[in-house]
Amino acid sequence: MPPVIELEPAPTSEANLEAAAWVFKALSDPARLKILAYLASHDTGPCCGPEGGICACDLEAVTGLSQPTVSHHMKCLISAKLVIGEKRGRWMYYRIDPKGFALLRAFLPRIGG
């Protein structure tokens, strides 16, 4: 897994292209897309408290994946700056990273012409 690199709206540097490649790699897995779609459409899950976010245990139930596999996918999404994770007690809670998605939306038109 590469270091976390900040994606910029314009593909002007080698580091930014590297960041973009990592974001697209993170988006290339069907399980991660399913997780992102779930996070984008749910503010909280059955196991969440008043702080919000989706518990890793909810993502296990939604995806049918094991805890280690969900954890692996979440590390990829966090590294790509698409998801924010927060540990509360013994569980991780996740939510969409609005800044990361805003940068992705700004970046896409610049490579599309």
From TrEMBL:
Record's NCBIfam families? HTH_metalloreg (NF033788)
**Transcription among keywords:** yes
Q: Which GO terms describe its molecular function?
A: DNA binding; DNA-binding transcription factor activity
Which organism encodes this protein? Calidithermus roseus
What keywords tag this UniProt record? Answer: DNA-binding, Transcription, Transcription regulation
- State one Pfam family annotation: HTH_5
Q: Which PROSITE patterns match?
A: HTH_ARSR_1, HTH_ARSR_2
Q: Which residues form the HTH arsR-type domain?
A: 12-113
Q: What is this protein called?
A: Arsenical resistance operon repressor
Respond yes or no to whether keyword Isomerase is given for this record: no
